[in-house]
Amino acid sequence: PMLEPYPAIPAFYSSLGFSLFAFIATIYLIPALGPTFINANLKGRDLLKIYDNPIPESMGLICASVYILSLIIFIPFAFSTPIREQVLASKPLEGITVPEFPHQQLSVYLSSLLSLVLATILGFLDDVFDIRWRHKLPIPIIASIPLLMVYYAEHGNTNVVVPLPLRSIFGTLINLGPLYYVYMALLSTFSTNSINILAGINGSEASQALIIALSVIVNDLLYLPWPVDFRIPLHLLGSPAEVEFGGVWSAGMAHGSRELVERHLLSFYFMLPLVAVCSAFLYHNWYPARAFPGDTLCYTTGMAFAVVGIQAHFSKTLILFFLPQIFNFLLSSPQLFGLVPCPRHRVPRFDRDTNLLHPSKALFLTPPAKVTTMILHIFSTLGFVELTVHPKTGVIFETTNLTILNFFLVRFGPLKEKSLVKVLICSQVTGTLLAFFIRYGLAWLVYDG
Ligand code: UD1
Ligand code: MG
């Protein structure tokens, strides 16, 4: 007899259980360990408050530890079916074919853990030593090498499906080869840093991570066979764009959908405890914050997203869940690349009298170069920034800092910190809805069915 078609489902429930446990552990440990962090000098001042008592910083370390530990404890459960099969194989039973132990999946799992641990170390070192950003950019790239190696070992796809209008020029598929690996390595740098630079108000980092993780889970659920009585017909969801996510469709429907299920199940197992620790942390980080995430939370969560995007072969869908971060990165680039002065903190300016946040500004000490002036004028026309120009010469001498948070304040006027974080959350949710529309709505227009 054949083994049941979707053997991994029972682990689903242990994953739920561990996540619940991770939630309870985090929500308890954050306040309990706050004083310990302050004693270790891991503390920061809340820049947008009138009081200045120290707030424990780098508390993302607790989230990361609980998260990684629950993923480690989960390993035997994730592989419970193959373990059972091996036990069966040791007792000779007639007519049963026992598959080999899935070493491949185990190496996927372990390399993911390795990358997560490396990202956590990097984040924590950054919190302690304040590493300069040009020094820390390449580190996630190195941390992603184990992932890329496993991707290679699995014969991961490096083809990209060409959208219909461009097919006459490029053909149906382009093989990016090594460039595809470069792209995946850059993805890990992007996902770790993009959350870190969209920060500075209470609840911002944790809520971004939470919404992205939930978006990934919703996307995974679309591919999972439901234990309840409505099975999503996989063949309806597998648009031809799936060819680029691992070439599984070319191998025939039955095999294709099973492999797809396994990949998305793995992603689900990595996201569920992340949702748990992020939501527990958000409870303590919500306005007025009693704990700060530090770069540790940004790096661990960012790497977790890169891990699932690469290992479950949906990196392009994943990028769509980062729309606010992409916007923030593009807007920030003149400051990141030195065209516009970049102060240590670009958080909004806090008005003590009204308790409102205003856009903060960057001051030019020397007149900006021509390119810079042009870029800033374009941004200003689009309503992204507010410029202060010299009344006679027209030379720009001040601009609002180039972040999405300042952009919201330029657009919607001065806001309370609590309202600004809600605007950010709304933009993240809208981004996700748009992402699903692009991925599953427009894919039919761009790729033939
Ligand atoms: C990034 C941003 C920086 C922003 C900072 C805020 C870039 C290039 N860097 O730097 O502009 O000011 O994040 O996190 O965009 N803080 C608060 N309230 C919060 C969270 C943080 O006041 O809700 C302050 C605290 O003083 C805390 C500090 O920000 O100690 C943490 O900053 P850190 O994460 O070290 O800054 P970067 O990630 O280097
Ligand atoms: Mg930071």
From TrEMBL:
Protein known as: UDP-N-acetylglucosamine--dolichyl-phosphate N-acetylglucosaminephosphotransferase
Enzyme Commission number(s) of this protein: 2.7.8.15
Biological or metabolic pathway of the protein: Protein modification; protein glycosylation
Biological function: UDP-N-acetylglucosamine--dolichyl-phosphate N-acetylglucosaminephosphotransferase that operates in the biosynthetic pathway of dolichol-linked oligosaccharides, the glycan precursors employed in protein asparagine (N)-glycosylation. The assembly of dolichol-linked oligosaccharides begins on the cytosolic side of the endoplasmic reticulum membrane and finishes in its lumen. The sequential addition of sugars to dolichol pyrophosphate produces dolichol-linked oligosaccharides containing fourteen sugars, including two GlcNAcs, nine mannoses and three glucoses.
Top EC class for this record: transferase
Cited InterPro entries: Glycosyl_transferase_4, GPT
Compartments in which it is found: Endoplasmic reticulum membrane
Organism expressing this protein natively: Panaeolus cyanescens
Predominant location: endoplasmic reticulum
UniProt keyword Metal-binding, yes or no: yes
UniProt catalytic activity: a di-trans,poly-cis-dolichyl phosphate + UDP-N-acetyl-alpha-D-glucosamine = an N-acetyl-alpha-D-glucosaminyl-diphospho-di-trans,poly-cis-dolichol + UMP
Record keywords: Endoplasmic reticulum, Glycosyltransferase, Magnesium, Membrane, Metal-binding, Transferase, Transmembrane, Transmembrane helix
CDD domains: GT_GPT_euk (cd06855)
